[in-house]
Amino acid sequence: MEEMDDDFIRDYRKAAETHRQVRQYVQTIVKPGVSMDKLAQEIEDGVRALVGHPGIETGDALKAGQGFPTGLALNNVAAHWTPNPGAKEVILQYDDVLKVDFGVHVNGRIVDSAFTVAANPVYDNLLAAVKAATNAGIRVRVIVLLSFRETDKSTGSRN
Question: How far apart are the first and last CA of the chain?
Fold first, then answer.
C-alpha cells in the first residue's frame, strides 16, 4: 500500500509540475495576434514533451498526456471550446477575454487548472474579482475539509 501511495503522489506531482511549466510558458505567448490553433498546439506539445509521452505509439497517451482537450474560450463562450483542424482560424484580439483551461494526466491522475487573460486593462478589475472569488472559494473548501477531518478524528470514523 505504501508503494501505491508513493506512486500516487509522484504521479500527481509530475502532472502538477508539467501543468505549472506549460501554464507559465503559455502566459508569455498569449497576446493579441496569436491564433487559437497555435495556443492549443503549444499547450498540447508542451504537455507531451514534459510528461515524456508523445502519444505516437498505440496506448502511449494513456500513460500520460493531455487530461482532456484544451479549452480556449473567448469572450461570451463560457468554456469547452477548442480549435478544430480545418475550421476558420480564430485570432486573439486586444479587446478579447480568453479563458484557458487544460489538464495534464499521469497514469490517469489529472491535474486541471484554468486562467483568464485580457490584454485590455479595462478588464483588470474583472480579472482581479474573478481571482479573488476563486481564492475565497478555495479557502472555504479547505476550511470545510479540515472541519470534516477534525470531526472524523473526534468520532473515530474513517472516510
Answer: 17
